[in-house]
Amino acid sequence: MAWEEVLAQNGYRVTAPRRAILLVLQGATQPLTPEEILAQARQLHPSLGLVTVYRTLDVLNALELVRCAHRDRACHGFLPATQGHHHVIICQKCHRAVEFPGDEDLEGLFRRIEEQTGYRVCDHLLQLAGLCPACQKEEAIEPYPLEEKI
User: Is residue 149 part of a domain?
Assistant: First the structure.
């Protein structure tokens, strides 16, 4: 289902500012901060404000149309979300992000944690970091140091 349909079905208007934000997020390959979303969306809707970006992100997050991801220096970045339960893995070098499915394998871990701590696990946030295939290839090809000319 399209984002616009989900917004409309939940009583939200699809305004020009929201459409600009949606277009930016739909093209995101790495988590974007609200400020980065604003900068890109202003190219589509010049009068867009940061408050509108934050409010729209709150709505999209509540409707599970985006997911929040942790970034090295900026704690909140946002990515388009797919339906169902997914997690994110982010490349530590190029910051490209990819979703991977579910929590079915985590149930055993949750039980052990509950037994060890006495807590009841109600929710979780799992995000992994690593190197994407392209960055792994780059690291494998280390250039030779330049020789000093005498």
Answer: no
- Which range marks the domain in which residue 108 is found? 82-140
The 10s digit of each residue's pLDDT in 26-65 is 988 888 999 999 999 999 999 999 999 999 999 998 998 9
In terms of Cβ atoms closer than 10 Å to its own Cβ (0-12, 13-18, 19+), residue 97 is buried
Quote the number of domains for the chain: 2
Q: Tell me, yes or no, whether 51 and 101 share the same domain.
A: no
HSE of 10, CA atoms in CB hemisphere, 13 A: 15
* Beta-sheet pairing, 127-130 with 86-91: parallel
Please give the sequence-ordered ranges of beta strands (E in DSSP) within 7-143, or none if there are none. 66-69, 77-80, 86-91, 97-101, 127-130
